[in-house]
Amino acid sequence: MQISPEKTRIGFIGLGVMGHSMAGHILDSGYALCVHTRTRARADGLVKKGAVWMDSVRKLAANSDVIISIVGYPQDVAQIYLDADGILENAATGSVAIDMTTSDPALARKLAAQSREKGIQVLDAPVSGGDLGARNATLSIMVGGEEPVFTDMLPLFQVMGKNIVYQGPAGSGQHTKMANQIAIAAGMIGVCEALAYAKKAGLDPDTVLSSIGQGAAGSWSLNNLGPRMLKSDFAPGFYVKHFIKDMTIAADSARDLGLDTPGLTLAKTLYERLVDNGCENDGTQALFKLF
Amino acid sequence: MQISPEKTRIGFIGLGVMGHSMAGHILDSGYALCVHTRTRARADGLVKKGAVWMDSVRKLAANSDVIISIVGYPQDVAQIYLDADGILENAATGSVAIDMTTSDPALARKLAAQSREKGIQVLDAPVSGGDLGARNATLSIMVGGEEPVFTDMLPLFQVMGKNIVYQGPAGSGQHTKMANQIAIAAGMIGVCEALAYAKKAGLDPDTVLSSIGQGAAGSWSLNNLGPRMLKSDFAPGFYVKHFIKDMTIAADSARDLGLDTPGLTLAKTLYERLVDNGCENDGTQALFKLF
Q1: Are B204 and B156 found together in one domain?
Q2: Taking the CB of the first residue and of the last residue of chain B, which one, N or C, has fewer CB atoms within 10 A?
Q3: What is the value of pTM for the model shown?
């Protein structure tokens, strides 16, 4: 499918913090856009700018050439794709569906297989870069599925992100995102322990950050979340509860692959302790509270 | 003490991979340099370029205005400073000693206290940036001790490094380096697990790196050691055995401060397992072998 703002109708499902910005970029690029999300009011701003509201996934799917979704949990993805009112039963033959939710690689493979029977192409294309990346259209997008379909959809990805990489067959985008979350998980423990140590040792932790942030200990987490930890700014860029969802998918997937991940296990345990303390709606930097 | 290449005699103890490059930069900057190290042959190149060999710490200390050391372990530092033939007994009143070994913060405080009684000033100034940072004079240097002494010695630090930060009273340089190593420790687990997951999931791990290296999972370790892991290049930039030394100091120090560091503990356990497999002289990226 050759896409262009002139002839391609885009349907967008899920207008959360991420989806709202991403759909906005698509609209701004001149595509005809219809939207659906659980809470109607979340669509108001986009509708004012020209998006068309659809009151069901069924209608949205039937009226779109490309259907993009970014919702909460794998069970939400399964629902919008597999229900009788969902994408697979209602999208036209030849349409493309792109799930950008961080979700289960096995589910992505299942959706790809079932959609093929319906003549629909599915890509799994989770993102990294958070609310800021979504707002600035600088998301990293990791894509799994048929490569020609990826190539066709590239102009659309470029409207939302910067570092857009084809990773392989269906599920590969999700697997890549899991690798991403696994690297972050144990890394966050290191960041918290290092800054907690600096404080306990009587150092000025901001000065410590200026020493260690640029060298071999440097990381996105240390340099971006470290300063928030030190200011006790635990406002969510990325929710603790969503990170736990991702770590759970990753841990299950690693177990299925026969891979031992003690760092991931430790991180998940610590984050679950954080939830026990009532912090599930904090940002992931709230892990610092435990130290 | 105002220092300058014209009037300041530098003594350098410890010509390992790091020290050899650092001493070379001092010599190249025009300072009179004398050197001592355990293995005489390690000094040959520098002596050819004009450095003067000293066959004991005693002689080196007695003939230097500023004495720099970067040796292996805290016990080596204690020996060159505290022995009857060592720095404190033999350096002239008014001289400055700078220990750049990654060593024990408590030892650094002890050396500072004892040197003060002798009229000698001591700084603890461990570095980060590895062999490459030493060679290119881009080391990060974290300094503890009296601030006016730090200010006096700044021109000398600038010959060896780039990101040079005064961190506070004696021991603060070492504490900062410990925070650095603590951040690296758990982070390395995340890097290994992420790349091992990518391989097990059938992805091309180099392509995965191109997706995850620049975003929220990005870190110096992932981007610099990740590619070496994937090529099974375990040659030492930074030795496993030295990292274990650092983690041991950090863990002891954290315990003394009453700080729980489960990520550091896990990393230390895994690296010790690596040593059990005979990998103590590999580079730290060899942790990947366990996954």
Answers
A1: no
A2: N
A3: 0.94
